[in-house]
Amino acid sequence: MSVSPDPERRRFVRWLGLGSVLGLFGSALGGLVAGPARAQSAKPSAPPAAATPAAPTPPSEDAKALHSILIGRYGEHMDAEQKEALLGAVDGTVQSGKALRAKKLANAVEPAVIYRAQPPSRDQRAEAGR
């Protein structure tokens, strides 16, 4: 028993094909029109100014507070240089956390977790069998 194709379905597929062709044509035409405009606006600019090294920013209040907690707990085991390095590390962590919190993600974005199952080696299987 053969079923004849629905004429409405065929009409839909034709419209779908026509829409995709028109979309491709429109994007190609937009590229041709935008090309000369880009060429006119791309004038040679002055060379960039020499980058001056930025002065180090002082640590945030959050970093100072966390640093004081760490120094209170572990400070007797550190010298002055290590304490100063710890303050820089804590401030870097606080700034990284602020940058991560500022980044907005869509609801469907999931963390990139890569799991690779690897069978145990022969030595590990032999030890497990004992």
Structural class of the helix and strand makeup?
A: mainly alpha
Count of helical regions? 4
Span of the ends, CA to CA: 65 Å
Spell out the helices and strands N to C.
HHHH
Range of helix content: 55-70%
What is the percentage of strand-forming residues?
under 5%
Instruction: Report the sheet with the most strands, covering strand number, pairing sense and barrel closure.
Output: none
Mean pLDDT: 77
Shape: flat
Q: Unreliable segments (pLDDT under 50, ≥5 consecutive)?
A: none
DSSP strand tally? 0
Radius of gyration: 31 Å
Descriptors:
single chain, 130 residues, mainly alpha
Would you kindly provide a written description of the structure presented here, covering whatever features stand out?
62% of the residues lie in helices and 0% in strands. With 130 residues, it is mainly alpha-helical. The chain has a domain at 61-102. It is flat, with a radius of gyration of 31 Å. The chain starts with 6 loop residues before the first helix and ends with a helix.
How would you summarize what this structure contains?
This protein is mainly alpha-helical and 130 residues long. The protein contains 4 helices and no strands. α2 (61-74) crosses α3 (80-102).
